[in-house]
Design brief:
single chain, two-stranded antiparallel ribbon, 7 strands, five-stranded mixed sheet
Length: about 230
């Protein structure tokens, strides 16, 4: 279904963006006029690490309907927060990416995430996207600044990422690393659980929800520091 909808969305915008406004000249209200609609900031979150196709955004935001997601994309594009771009092949699909102005939302979205850690968890079933857990990994992992660099090939939910820990910082990039010290394959929820509870790593390895190749000490240094 996402493929046919994406093709239709590529052809023509068939609906105008919403024009609701707080009609308040405060900068906070004006910002919410742009990104205050439901799902808008989660679309921004999903585009922080890499441009994505419509179908990928639908997968990452399973509780947003196709029509609702299309509305948010139109509105964000209309306001200059995101743009559409064709991939290298002119016959290929379009991706959505943040504009320079949209990129300025990153520290705001990350600060919301830090603040939201203390909010109650939603009731099950819940979703957790790859982007969400990678942002959490990037901010929560505290590798030893004096330790040697670590490069991890991370297969997360079928997509490959390069995770680099160096000088106490963690960087995340889409795609295959040139070389990797360790390799990890899992799903977003399992990785989130590992980051929250180091004691769960042995059980995850034993039950097969995590597949790992390499030095286990290096993995522990990447995820938990030390």
């Amino acid at each position: 279904m996402s493929g046919s909808f994406e093709s239709e969305w590529d052809k023509e915008e068939v609906a105008m963006p919403t024009s609701r406004s707080y009609r308040d000249s405060c900068g906070i209200a004006r910002a919410l006029d742009v990104v205050g609609e439901r799902w808008a900031l989660l679309v921004v979150r999903e585009l922080l690490l890499v441009p994505q196709r419509f179908s990928e955004l639908r997968h990452a935001l399973p509780n947003a309907s196709s029509n609702l997601l299309a509305d948010r994309l139109r509105e964000l594009e209309h306001h200059g927060v995101i743009r559409r771009r064709k991939l290298a092949s002119t016959a290929g699909p379009q991706v959505y990416e943040l504009t320079e102005w949209g990129r300025k939302l990153e520290p705001i979205v990350l600060a919301l995430g830090d603040w939201g850690i203390d909010a109650p968890n939603p009731t099950e079933p819940t979703s957790l996207s790859a982007t969400s857990v990678l942002i959490f990994l990037r901010g929560a992992a505290r590798p030893d600044p004096a330790a040697p660099p670590i490069v991890c090939r991370l297969d997360l939910d079928g997509s490959v990422w390069t995770v680099c820990a160096d000088s106490g910082n963690v960087q995340v990039h889409s795609g295959e690393p040139a070389t990797a010290d360790i390799s990890l394959r899992t799903d977003p929820k399992t990785l989130g659980s590992l980051l929250a509870d180091p004691a769960s790593l042995d059980a995850a390895l034993a039950e097969g929800s995590v597949a790992f190749v390499g030095d286990l000490l290096a993995l522990n240094r990447l995820l938990y520091g030390g």
